[in-house]
Amino acid sequence: MKRLFVISGSSGVGKGTVIKEFLKRNPGFKLSVSCTTRNKRPGEIDGESYHFISRDEFKKGIEDNDFLEWAEFSNNCYGTRKSNIEQALKNGENIILEIETQGAMQVKKQIADAVLIFIAPPSFEELKKRLEGRQTENPEAIRTRLAQAEREQNDSKNYDHIIINDTIQNAVENLEKIISQYLI
Ligand code: 5GP
C-alpha cells in the first residue's frame, strides 16, 4: 500500500458517484469492499458493492478481530476487513475506504498517515432533497439518515480536507487535486 485515503460524507451527498468517477479517471486506486449487515438495494452486487453478511457473521468477525474498523450506522453494522488492507499493502496499491465518520476516526488512530477527506452537501436542504429523491429508503430511514448527517457534519472538523459537492465535476477535480498532493 502506498497511501490510505478515507472518504466520508453524509448519506445522499453523492460520494459514491464522486468516488466512482474518480476511480474511472484514476485506475491506480483500489476501493475497499466493506462488509455490511444491511439489506441489498436493487442493483447492488454481493462482493462488489459490499460483502452482505448476517449479524452473526459480523459478530464473529468482531470477536475474531477481523476488522480494522467497524461501526453501527442506521441500525446496521458496517466494517472494513483487515485482510483487504493487507492485500493492498502487498500489491503496492493506493487504497480508498468509503466509510462513515466513527470508522474513519478508528482508522486515523491506527494508521496515522491516513488522509481523511469529507464530502459535504452544498446545504442541508439540498441533502434532504437528494435523499428523498433517490427513493431507496422509507421516511423513517430518511429521518435517521438526516440525523446521522448532522452528527457526521460535526465530525468533519477532524478531517484533513472538506470538499463541497456542488457539481460532480467540481468535486472530482477537487478530490484529484487533494489526492495528488500526497502522491510522489
Ligand atoms: P449505505 O447504507 O448508504 O451504503 O452506507 C451507509 C454509511 O456506511 C455510509 O456513510 C458509508 O460510507 C458507510 N460505510 C460503508 N462501509 C463502511 C465500513 O466498512 N465501515 C464504516 N465505518 N462505515 C461504512
Provide the descriptors you would attach to this structure in a database record.
184 residues, alpha/beta, five-stranded parallel β-sheet, four-stranded mixed β-sheet, 7 helices, binds guanosine-5'-monophosphate
Provide an overview of this structure:
45% of the residues lie in helices and 22% in strands. The protein has a 5-stranded parallel beta sheet, sandwiched between helices. Strands 4-3-6-5 form a 4-stranded mixed beta sheet. The longest helix has 17 residues. With 184 residues, the chain is of the alpha/beta class. A hairpin with a 2-residue loop joins β5 and β6. The protein has 7 helices and 9 strands. α1 crosses α7.
The chain-level mean pLDDT equals 93
Low-pLDDT runs of 5+ residues are none
How large is the count of helical segments? 7
Relative strand content: 15-25%
**Radius of gyration of CA atoms, rounded to a whole number:** 16 Å
N to C succession of SSEs: EHEEEHEEHEHEHHEH
Helix-strand category: alpha/beta
Biggest sheet, open or closed, and with what strands and sense?
Answer: 5 strands, parallel
Across the major sheet, the strand order is 2-7-1-8-9
Strands, total number: 9
Ends distance: 13 Å
Helix content: 40-55%
